[in-house]
Amino acid sequence: MFYMNRPICCNGAKSVASWALCWLNHEGRHEEFLTEDEKKEYSRLNASGRKREWLAARIALKRILMEANYIESPIHCHIRKDRFGRPKITLGEEDDFRIMNCSISHKRGIAAVCISWFPEIKVGIDVETLSEKPFRLRSAFVGKGDSLTIIPQSKEYYAVLWACKEAASKAMGLGMLTDFRKLCVVGDGDRRFSVSENRQERTKGYYLFFGDFIVAIAHRHPTIPGDTRAN
Asked: Which residues lie closer than 8 Å to 148 by C-beta, 6 or more apart?
């Protein structure tokens, strides 16, 4: 198993969130990471690759929480999807619980996860491969104002652009039917980016390369205009 965990800091301040990558070379025996309900959900999955990604995401989320001393044991939290299909972390029991924002993405066996330490900060994460697919589909998501400091028209450019928009859409709470052409991504030379909608900045983030993978992490803070939502 491979696992790495990194903090997300805003304006040089303390960590406001954390993200992690996890890869399992086989399913193995990781029952100790799952609650009884999660074990039942896991047993309903069929494809072995999908099962490894699903399990890797839960292991990563729970390891982040244990390392941050939010929980003593992985069975002291539950990871469920809300009615919109977005993952949420529940700490505690029914009579005394807390909901935490999180985001999950996976691609070719790699699981990427992100957790916000504050209810007012929304997070989104996406992992993509350096493939030709985003280049072929560029007309469906590239907008006129998009700009990244990567060689234009390259497969890296469009793969990174897609990952940034996907991560931002999760942080913004947008659905799958969102027109990504209306999300304007502008990057700097330090692999950081901002995303605006209707000329109003909505979220910020950064991306990095991990072998043949691209990971984009976005966070949305209430100080960004237009964002006043909280759990």
From this structure: 157, 160, 161, 164, 185, 186, 187, 193
Sheet containing 96-107: give its strands across. 2-9, 15-23, 110-116, 96-107, 87-93, 77-81
Which residues have CB under 8 Å from 165's CB, separation 6+? 141, 180, 183, 185, 195
Residue 227 has pLDDT above 90, yes or no: no
- Taken in order of first residue, the domains within the chain and their CATH numbers are 1-118 (3.90.470.20), 120-231 (3.90.470.20)
Amino acid at 94: E
Tell whether the model's pLDDT for residue 225 goes beyond 50: no
Locus of tokens 């709470």: 173
Q: In this structure, what is the dihedral angle of CA atoms 168, 226, 185, 124, given to the nearest 10 degrees?
A: -10
- Rounded CA separation 219/168 (Å): 7
CB 19 within 8 Å of CB 65: no
Cα–Cα distance, 186 to 171 (Å, whole number): 16
Q: Which two tokens stand for residue 43?
A: 């047993």
CB count in 10 Å sphere of residue 93 = 9
Look at residue 156 and give its three-state secondary structure. helix
Question: What local confidence, expressed as pLDDT, does residue 224 receive?
Answer: 46
Tell me the pTM. Answer: 0.91
Specify which residues 87 forms β-bridges with.
Answer: 81
Closest to 93 (Cα-Cα) out of 37, 43, 41, 19: 37
The values of phi and psi at residue 166, to 5°, are -65, -45
| pLDDT per residue as tens digits for the range 159-203 | 999 999 999 999 999 877 789 999 999 998 789 999 999 889 999
